[in-house]
Amino acid sequence: LNLLLLEPEEVDAEGIAVLSDARARHLQTILRAAPNQAVRIGVLDGPIGVGRLLAIGNGVANLACTFEHTPPRPRIDLLLALPRPKVLRRLWAQIAALGVNRVILTNAARVERNYFDTHVLEPAVYRPLLIEGLQQARDTRVPLVTVHRQFRVLIEDELDSLAGDGRRLVAEPGRGESIASATMTIGSTRLLLAVGPEGGWNEFELQLMRAHRFIGVSMGPRTLRSDTACVALLALANDALKGAT
Amino acid sequence: LNLLLLEPEEVDAEGIAVLSDARARHLQTILRAAPNQAVRIGVLDGPIGVGRLLAIGNGVANLACTFEHTPPRPRIDLLLALPRPKVLRRLWAQIAALGVNRVILTNAARVERNYFDTHVLEPAVYRPLLIEGLQQARDTRVPLVTVHRQFRVLIEDELDSLAGDGRRLVAEPGRGESIASATMTIGSTRLLLAVGPEGGWNEFELQLMRAHRFIGVSMGPRTLRSDTACVALLALANDALKGAT
What we know:
The structure is a homodimer.
Chain A: E1 4-6, E2 16-19, H1 22-30, E3 38-43, E4 48-57, E5 60-67, E6 76-81, H2 85-98, E7 102-106, H3 123-137, E8 144-148, H4 151-163, E9 167-171, H5 179-182, E10 191-195, H6 203-211, E11 214-217, H7 226-243
Parallel strand pairs in A: 1-3, 6-7, 6-10, 7-8, 9-10, 9-11
Antiparallel strand pairs in A: 2-5, 3-4, 4-5
């Protein structure tokens, strides 16, 4: 546990948080934390700080919290053709750990319709997985998630308000320039990264995206599974944004 | 199935392969392949080519194989502190898909000893997962896998013969230069990438690696799970090697 995350309502006006769930048990039995010990804490979508243990025992931990800075929201949004539920389940924590502002899940010609029937799309299932990823990466910013069953409506009508006027990239194995070159002059605008379904986007989808300012980028000729591709592309995009001017 | 992989002994002297397992069923029921249809095939650690279906039915497929080029072995080796079995299981296919020549699994101070007792370290378990990743990425080169229970012996006595005289990088969150800058002048030599355990390498391990030509590299301040870190670092390393001179 690199960062103990709290819901905003768990910290009272005096900065005291009382935990009695898995987090308290983790402090007690895994970290063997003792009174007066300081623990790195964060408030979901809020600041990072330090919690000093006032008392711990019987599965209950009392923390006196002081806060420092609030992490900025990530600059990258992810447009992802809905993957198989098993793959999506594995992906939630990794997306949050890598730092994504918004996850825009969409239908596409090569997405199977029954993928939408999974409980992996329910906030009650994915929010704990997102929080797990944030705790791993020491961030507090929960990715915003929306699900879109109509690709065309998403691209034509909804994307501008979701992703703003940032740079838009669509990954295609073996086609297009590198992410670094496509973001060379990005300045301080946002970056939207589109990752297709296992079988790839079809030509209609690619043309619609190109007509809406998407630039094709490639990591090379290897075709990767959705989750591998997402992690690889997010790593490259984060790296490129650091080097961009 | 992007590439149908065959064991070398499955192709006879006339180039005929007779399949009667899950691959034949996949051709028949998922791809609905018909006689005369051409399928992209590859021989494990051998060439890529085309298989023309001579006959298919009742779970048996006969292919007439012709071969083209043999993919080169990947330039990257991965030195990985043994992750939790659950994480390692997820990682095998992704490592193969991203292209790794050699996977060197090692003990470290922060690796739990019982991680070595898993059947995920048995070739019978990991080889099919590696092949799954190769089929995804259209490669035939099976990563070589070795397991080392003594970190110091590995670094001092075994690494030179395993990884040769290539560039050696060790990933540390928040410390070190970027992979791109650390590989700027790599030329055509190999690259060895070291990824630590969940809790990180300890100081002894880092010093021993530095004494054996490892350079610290970082993807930024975020701490990632082993599998996420491996995929992210391999993507960055592949990308850097493309741009390096």
